[in-house]
Amino acid sequence: MLKQYHWKNYSIKLLLTVMILCSLGTMFIYAAKPEFIKKQLLGVILCFIVILTVSFIDYGMILKFIWPLYGINIVILAAVKLFGKDVNGSTRWFDLGPFGTIQPSEFSKIILILFVAYFVECHKDDLNEWKTLGKLALFCAIPIGLILIETDLSTSIDICLIIGAIIFIGGLSWKRILTLLGVVIPLGTGFVLHAMSPNPILIPNYMVNRIRSFMDPTQNQSSGAYQQLNSIMAIGSGQLKGKGLFSDSLATVKDAKLVSEQQTDFIISIVGEMTGFIGCMIVIALLALIVLQCIGIAKKAKDTSGMLIATGVASLFCFQSFMNIGVATQILPNTGLPLPFVSYGLSSLMGSAIGIGLVINVGLQGRRY
């Protein structure tokens, strides 16, 4: 309710940081693909409408409807696999005709942040019992599994990391963490070794190609590393100050089209080539500032669920930014994740906007600064 809000707590700084990052993102998208600028500008306008609207909606009221939201999420994820648009072997999008496409998994991230925050608060007294953790794992496995069969491994990993951060902050003991790592690390090692074997029959081909491209890029350029190697070349060629956003005097990786769809998953290669190391550091600093402000609001939340929602959104921006930049610089295998508020894409922009709106609402109901 509005009377419960501490209006001095409205995070104008967070809103301004997002505005600056969106403005820079729009410029970089224009430099990469000018034909997308109108849709992106419309998306940015909708983004701020969504942030302002969601920021005034009581997150406690939203949590009262978390089970219907969870159910709707499952139905939509199943529907996109059955009726969605296939792009390069992946079925992740609904085709909306002249309005473009929408990717439900981007909104699943937010719904699962809300769901896990609600679940952890309901089970804060028995969170470390295996029965409780098993129940949470089962509930999360259903939507994550549906996303995985869309051949969207990157989003599945991203969501798992976010969930892990929420339950850790929610009170998961180090004993349980070490036990889980003792299971996950050997399984992960076995997964990679199997992918590198001559006939990996248990892993889909697209996963095998990405792992092999990462482990040995010079021998597997045609299957994925080609994009990453050219992205590194683009970033390195920008040196300190870059070649200029709209300069035609220098040859660029962008003009040679050596990185396809550069306006989305590899947007940081445009940032590096056009504005150099300085531009990359500005973008990374703005993303870090968003994460830190979300954490600051989490610390002042009025209850556990508010703290965990803000923590989940901070984790989303932190992990997704790291994974996006890690892929573009070949620190990580080639996976498709947008850079929040910078990459082109309405679904990512709207999902991120809802997350920021929720965090601002947590701040409005938190302790007075």
TrEMBL record:
Return the Pfam families for the record: FTSW_RODA_SPOVE
Question: Which keywords does this chain's UniProt record carry?
Answer: Cell shape, Membrane, Transmembrane, Transmembrane helix
- The source's superkingdom equals Bacteria
GO molecular function terms listed in the Swiss-Prot or TrEMBL record: lipid-linked peptidoglycan transporter activity
GO CC term, one of those recorded: cell division site
Where found? Membrane
Give the transmembrane region(s).
12-31, 37-58, 65-84, 104-120, 132-149, 155-172, 177-197, 266-295, 307-329, 341-364
Biological process GO annotation list? cell division; regulation of cell shape
Membrane-protein topology:
Multi-pass membrane protein
Q: What is this protein called?
A: Rod shape-determining protein RodA
Give the species this sequence originates from. Answer: Candidatus Scybalomonas excrementavium
